[in-house]
Design goal:
By secondary structure, the chain is α+β, with helices and mostly antiparallel strands. It has one domain: Electron Transport, Fmn-binding Protein, Chain A (Pnp Oxidase, Chain A). Helix content is 16%, strand content 35%. It is built from five helices and 14 strands. The protein has a seven-stranded antiparallel beta sheet with strand order 3-2-8-11-12-5-4. Strands 1-13-14 form a three-stranded antiparallel beta sheet, with no helix packed on it. It has a two-stranded antiparallel sheet with strand order 6-7. Strand 2 and strand 3 form a beta hairpin. It starts with 10 loop residues before the first helix and ends in a 20-residue tail after the last strand. The mean pLDDT is 97. The structure holds flavin mononucleotide (FMN). The site of flavin mononucleotide has 17 residues, from strand 3, strand 5 and helix 2.
Length: 208
C-alpha cells in the first residue's frame, strides 16, 4: 500500500490525490445572474444528492481570497441553472472556465445560445442536452478556501427531444455526457458501458 496521513499533506497535494482518485466526475455547467449580468462556469465537484425534492450540489473554490463570480451572483440572486456537459459542447464549456472578469458573459464568449428559463431568472443554455432550473436551498462555507458548497432544489427539468421516454427513463447514449478525470486536460466519454443488475436478498436480481 501507498499511504498518507492527511495531517502531513498540504492542500495542493490533497487536491491532487482527490481529483485523481474520485473519477470520473460529472460536470455541471452552471449559469447564474447578478447585477453585472449572466455568468456560466463548469464545476466537477458536482452531484445529485436527493430526490424528494430533487436536489443537486456543486462546490466552488475561492478565487484570490474572494468568491468566484458564480457564488457572487448566487449571493445576489439565489437561483441557477445546472446543465449536463455533453461531448458536443465540451469546447464551449471549456471557454466558460476561462477566468474572465465578473462582468463578462461566458455564454456569449463561448458562442452558446441563451434562452429564458421558466421558473428562475438566470438564463439557460440551449445547446446543453439537459438543464435543471434550481433555487438555492443552502450554501455551506467549508474548509480553509473556503469552499462554497451550493445546494439547489430542481424546480424545472429540460431535455432535448428524444432523451426521455414515456416511463421517464433517460437514454444516456443520446445525452453523451463527458466526465472529468485528473490532470490538465483529462476527460472521459461513456463509450464503454455495461449492465449489472442489483442482487436480491436470498438470490436473484432486482427488476427495473
Ligand atoms: C471541467 C472543469 C471542472 C471544474 N470544476 C471546478 C470545481 O468543481 N470547483 C471550482 O471551484 N472550480 C472548478 N473549475 C474551474 C472553474 O470553472 C473556473 O474557476 C471558472 O473560471 C469559475 O468561473 P466564475 O468565476 O465565473 O464562477 C472547473 C473547470 C473545468 C474546466
Amino acid at each position: 500500500m501507498t499511504e498518507f496521513d492527511a495531517a502531513a499533506l498540504d492542500a495542493q497535494t490533497q487536491y491532487k490525490l482527490l481529483i485523481g482518485s474520485v473519477t470520473p466526475r460529472p460536470i455541471a455547467l452552471v449559469t447564474t445572474l447578478g447585477s453585472q449580468g449572466p455568468n456560466a462556469a463548469p464545476f466537477s465537484f458536482f452531484n445529485a444528492i436527493g430526490s424528494d425534492p430533487a436536489m443537486l450540489m456543486f462546490s466552488v473554490g475561492a478565487k484570490d481570497g474572494g468568491a468566484k463570480d458564480t457564488v457572487a451572483n448566487i449571493l445576489e440572486i439565489p437561483e441557477f441553472v445546472v446543465h449536463i456537459v455533453s461531448d458536443a459542447i465540451k469546447e464551449k464549456m471549456n471557454v466558460c472556465a476561462i477566468d474572465y472578469p465578473r462582468g463578462v458573459n461566458e455564454i456569449e464568449q463561448a458562442g452558446f445560445t441563451a434562452l429564458a428559463s421558466k421558473k428562475v431568472r438566470p438564463p439557460r443554455i440551449a445547446e446543453a442536452p439537459i438543464a435543471f432550473e434550481c433555487r438555492l436551498l443552502q450554501r455551506l462555507e467549508l474548509g480553509r478556501g473556503p469552499y462554497h458548497v451550493v445546494i439547489g432544489e430542481v424546480v424545472y427539468f429540460h431535455y432535448h427531444e428524444g432523451i426521455v421516454d414515456e416511463r421517464f427513463h433517460i437514454d444516456v447514449g443520446k445525452v453523451n455526457p463527458i466526465g472529468r478525470l485528473a490532470g490538465r486536460g483529462g476527460y472521459t466519454r461513456i463509450t464503454d458501458r455495461f449492465e449489472m443488475p442489483r442482487l436480491k436478498l436470498g438470490g436473484g436480481v432486482l427488476e427495473g
